[in-house]
Design brief:
Layout: H1 2-16, E1 21-28, E2 40-47, E3 54-58, H2 69-77, E4 81-85, H3 103-114, E5 122-126, H4 128-139, E6 147-151, H5 159-170, H6 179-189, H7 199-202, E7 206-208, E8 214-216, H8 226-229, H9 234-242, E9 248-253, H10 261-270, E10 275-279, H11 286-289, H12 291-304
Parallel strand pairs: 3-4, 3-5, 5-6, 6-9, 9-10
Antiparallel strand pairs: 1-2, 2-4, 7-8
Length: about 325
């Protein structure tokens, strides 16, 4: 019987360690009566076994699911199911036909992606993606996530840092003539990085429009709605943070201008059970700046959770 259990354990681990990538489109529709009634197609990508413990990665404003590629690949190889997706108006997901985006629509989309996973995932959210996870973790009963990782974001943030990021996003409405121009612009914006982006890394982030120019794969209309109205949601986010009961890890960059000692201290006072890890050399873009340290911190946090390991115990009975 012991040999049988060992064989089952091995078979289960072998199944979890299969490295597969599946990409699909799902349809989301906002439950908010004031939101656009148009259904939105969302691009969802899954790595690892469909029966493995799920991790759900949610990117930041103006990013795509590809921001998580290295971390998601590493965690799937360790036996987790790593799910990434493009928020509406970003990447390969559809854009709002009326150009209007509301917070509630993004929250509804996140629930639409997370609920079919079979069990509450660990949510890993960067910037705006973290705020979406925070809101749902504090407002939905029972919580839709078993744990929460906030990547360089707190319910109250530093306005100057966000303004700098939005200025960069607004700076090139006519796009770029070629990838070389885009690479040079990014290098100027991120001077701390020792290696410039390569064309193949930018191909998922840019698209060539009918005029031949390369433009970011996000809807410019986002800058007129979500970005413009974000600070008015801070009271709601602060209230949600107070109600979170699941384990929380806040990862911050030591060189970030979006969070600060003050915003981090306020968050930890609101949520005393939250853990905080600072990656000293990182800016707001933790996954891109220091992916190994970033992935290591997530791995350590998840392993510390009850039943945090990817390999589940296989029950054995005398029958």
């Amino acid at each position: 019987m012991r040999a049988l259990c060992q064989r089952r354990d091995t078979e289960y681990r072998d199944e979890l360690l299969k490295y597969t990538v599946r990409m699909r489109m799902v349809t989301a529709r906002s439950a908010n009566p004031s939101a656009s009634a148009t259904e939105i197609a969302l691009a969802v990508e899954s790595r690892g076994s469909a029966t493995a413990p799920p991790l759900l990665f949610v990117h930041g404003f103006g990013q795509t699911r590809h921001a998580w590629q290295r971390c998601a690949r590493a965690m799937s190889r360790e036996g987790f199911r790593a799910v990434t997706f493009d928020l509406r108006g970003h990447g390969d997901s559809a854009r709002a036909t009326d150009g209007h985006y509301e917070l509630q629509s993004f929250l509804d989309d996140l629930l639409r992606v997370s609920r079919p996973l079979g069990e509450p995932p660990v949510l890993i959210g960067a910037s705006m993606g973290g705020l979406l996870g925070l809101a749902l973790a504090g407002e939905v009963v029972p919580p839709p996530f078993r744990a929460l990782v906030l990547v360089d974001i707190t319910p109250r943030w530093e306005s100057a840092g966000v303004a700098r990021m939005l200025d960069f996003m607004r700076a090139h409405p006519n796009g770029f003539a070629d990838y070389a121009e885009a690479i040079a612009v990014i290098a100027e914006y991120l001077p701390h990085r020792t290696r410039a982006k390569r064309q193949h890394e930018l191909e998922p982030l840019l698209r060539r429009d009918a005029d031949g120019r390369l433009r970011w794969r996000w809807d410019p209309a986002l800058l007129d709605t979500i970005a413009h109205e974000s600070e008015r949601h801070q009271p709601r986010l602060l209230a949600a943070a107070r109600r979170i009961e699941v384990p929380v890890l806040l990862l911050s960059g030591g060189r970030s201008d979006v969070v600060s000692r003050e915003t981090i201290a306020e968050f930890l006072q609101l949520l005393p059970h939250a853990r905080h890890v600072e990656i000293p050399e990182a800016t707001h873009m933790l996954a891109g700046d220091t992916n190994d340290a970033f992935t290591g911190a997530i791995r350590e946090f998840i392993r510390s959770l009850p039943e945090g390991g990817a390999t589940r115990q296989v029950p054995c009975t005398s029958s």
